[in-house]
Design a protein that fits this description.
alpha+beta, 4 helices, 3-stranded antiparallel β-sheet, single chain, globular, 7-stranded antiparallel β-sheet
Length: 190
C-alpha cells in the first residue's frame, strides 16, 4: 500500500521546503567544485564620445560551472542575478572561461573580492592572451580555456544560468592540478 506523503510545514525561515539558507549553504559546501575565471569585454559606455575609454576587461570567479552538452558543445555558468557579469552578459553575448590551476589561487581570490578595485587593475599583472573569437582575456597557464557565445539565459531563483556554445577550447597549462573550492575554502587535490 502506497502512503500519501504528508504535507510540508513551512519553517520560520520562509522556506516551504523545510531547508534554511544556512542548512542549504552548509550542505552544498560539501560538494567540491572546480574554480574558473569568467571574463568578457565591456563595450564603451558612450561609443559616441571620442574621449571615452575603449573596451574594459571584466572578470569574475565562479565555482558553478559545468559541461552541458558535447554535440553541440555547451557549457553553463551560474551568475548571481544583478551581478556585474550577469548584467554584462545580458548585453554582451561573447565571454570566456579559464579553468584555474592550484597555483592560481591568488587570481580566484582577487576576482571574488567584494567591493574590489577596478577590474583593469586586477588584470594588470596577470599573464593573459586575448581570445581569438571573443577578445576576452584568457589566463596564461590555465588548465583549459574556453571561448563562448551565449545561447540561452534561464532565470533560476536568485541566479541566472547562462548557457554558452563553446567556440574555442585550448589546453595551455599542463602543470599542476585543478584549483578546487570545498567547505568555503580554496583547496587542491591530494
Amino acid at each position: 500500500m502506497l502512503k500519501t506523503p504528508s504535507p510540508i510545514t513551512p519553517l520560520p525561515s520562509g522556506h516551504a521546503e523545510g531547508v534554511s539558507n544556512d542548512e542549504f549553504r552548509a550542505a552544498m559546501s560539501r560538494l567540491a567544485a572546480g574554480v574558473v575565471l569568467v571574463t568578457a569585454q565591456e563595450p564603451p559606455l558612450d561609443p559616441d564620445d571620442p574621449d571615452a575609454p575603449g573596451v574594459e576587461d571584466v572578470g569574475m570567479t565562479a565555482t558553478a560551472f559545468m559541461s552541458v552538452s558535447l554535440d553541440p558543445p555547451l557549457v553553463l555558468v551560474s551568475l548571481r542575478e544583478g551581478a556585474r557579469m550577469d548584467d554584462l552578459l545580458a548585453e554582451q553575448p561573447l565571454w570566456a572561461v579559464s579553468v584555474l590551476t592550484e597555483s592560481q589561487r591568488h587570481i580566484a581570490g582577487r576576482f571574488a573580492m567584494k567591493g574590489r578595485i577596478s577590474d583593469r587593475l586586477l588584470f594588470e599583472d596577470i599573464p593573459c592572451v586575448r581570445g581569438e573569437a571573443t577578445g576576452a582575456p584568457l589566463v596564461g597557464g590555465a588548465l583549459a580555456t574556453l571561448e563562448c557565445r551565449t545561447e540561452q539565459r534561464v532565470a533560476a531563483g536568485d541566479h541566472t544560468l547562462v548557457i554558452g556554445r563553446v567556440l574555442t577550447a585550448h589546453l595551455p597549462g599542463t602543470e599542476g592540478g585543478p584549483l578546487l573550492y570545498f567547505r568555503g575554502r580554496y583547496r587542491q587535490l591530494g
